[in-house]
Structure formats: structure tokens, C-alpha cells
Amino acid sequence: MKKVALLVAAALIAPSAAFAHQAGDILVRGGAVMVSPTTDANDPLDVQSNMQLGLTFSYMVTDNWGVELLAATPFSHSVESGGNEVAKVKHLPPSLMAQYYFGSAQSKVRPYVGAGINYTFFFDEEGKGLLSGTNVKADDSWGLAAQAGLDMKVTDNLFVNGSVWYMDIDTDVKTDLETFKTEIDPIGLMVGLGYRF
Ligand code: NI
Question: Fewest CB atoms within 10 Å of the CB: 26, 78, 139, 152?
Fold first, then answer.
């Protein structure tokens, strides 16, 4: 009887065992992001891949629903035409996502999906090769974004993260010669660590 009483007491004293991601948590993730444009062969311009540091900030509204702001250090893409570099552009693609996390606050693995909106602004556009010394300007872009990811608990606060994003980024690249409608529509692949506050 004494043993049972002790067990009951221990259960009452023990903190309510939530292992990961519950309402009110702030999740910060950081890692390497590879952004690979999905320009196809019909596009006049071919935008090359680039790797940067990605940062995401999520707030858990409930145990299963969160909102995420996705940020990164500026991506720098080489733009090619017929295999020759004609421009370099930099951009920042901040995105705001509504996320749904599968599982419960007790789950050690939390897969999630998200959908939202992306705003991409371009800067430091620079003509190269044939366009060297000419004006190059890429228009900012608003578009839809989607993601899927997985958080895996390491310690109570630390977790590993892998996620993939898709962003609909379309821009007009304006040059002195002509304006090129360019669909960058990149896939982003991020692998990193997260911390739960
Ligand atoms: Ni597009």
C-alpha cells in the first residue's frame, strides 16, 4: 500500500510530461538550405542553384497548429542564357506559413505540412557576359508557398529538422534588350537543428 501511495504521489508531483511541441512553444530552426530553381528548358533564362543559411521561427498556437516565418541569408543566383552567364541576382524570399503538426505533444517525431505566402525581393542585379555593364532589374514577386518537414526530438529542447519547401516565384527580368518573364519556382531543401523555447 505504501508503495502505491508513493507511486501516486510521484505521478502527481511529476511535471505533466510533454516531450515536444505544444501550444505556446516557440520553435527556432537553423540549417543549410539549398534553393534549386525549377526553370524548364523553354524558359529563356536558366537560374542556377544556391546554398545559404536558413532560419525559421514557429509559434505553436495549439499542440497541432503553428505559424512559421521563414527567413534566410540572401540567395545569390547565377542566371544563364544558352549556357552562358548573363546576370547575377540576389534575393530574399521571406515566407509566412500556417502549419499542421501530426502527432501529439507526447510524440518524439512531429511531421508537419504548411501552406502560405511568399514575398521575394531581388537586389544587386548585375549584368554579366553579354549583358555586362547594362541595366538588369528583376521585379519583386508574391506567390504561394508550401512545405513539408519533420522534427525529431534529441533532448527536451533540442531537435533535428529536415524540411522541403516550394515557392512560386515569378519575376520579370528587365534588361536593356528585352524583358524576360522568368519562373524561378524553387524547391528549397533544409537540414538543420531546432530549439524549443
Ligand atoms: Ni511560377
Answer: 26
Say how far apart CA 121 and CA 4 lie, in whole Å: 63
CATH architecture of 2-196: Beta Barrel (2.40)
Judged by DSSP in three states, 16 sits in coil
* Dihedral angle over CA of 103, 107, 108, 114, nearest 10: 20
- Is-contact 110 150, C-beta < 8 A? yes
CA of 169 to the centre of ligand 1 (A): 5
Instruction: Read off the pTM.
Output: 0.84
**In sequence order, which residues have a C-beta less than 8 Å from that of residue 54 and are 6 or more positions away?**
29, 30, 31, 32, 33, 70, 71, 72, 188, 190, 192
Q: Which residue has the cell 501530426?
A: 102
Q: What is the separation of C-alpha 50 from the centre of its chain, rounded to a whole number of angstroms?
A: 14
| CA 161 / ligand 1 centre spacing (Å) | 27
Q: List pLDDT tens digits, range 43-54.
A: 778 899 999 999
DSSP 76-100: EEEEEETTEEEEEEEEE--EEEEEE
The alpha carbon of 133 and the centre of ligand 1 are apart by a number of angstroms equal to 29
Q: From ligand 1's centre to the CA of 128, what distance in Å?
A: 24
Cβ contacts of 25 within 8 Å, gap of 6 or more: 59, 60, 196, 197
Mean of per-residue pLDDT scores for the chain: 90
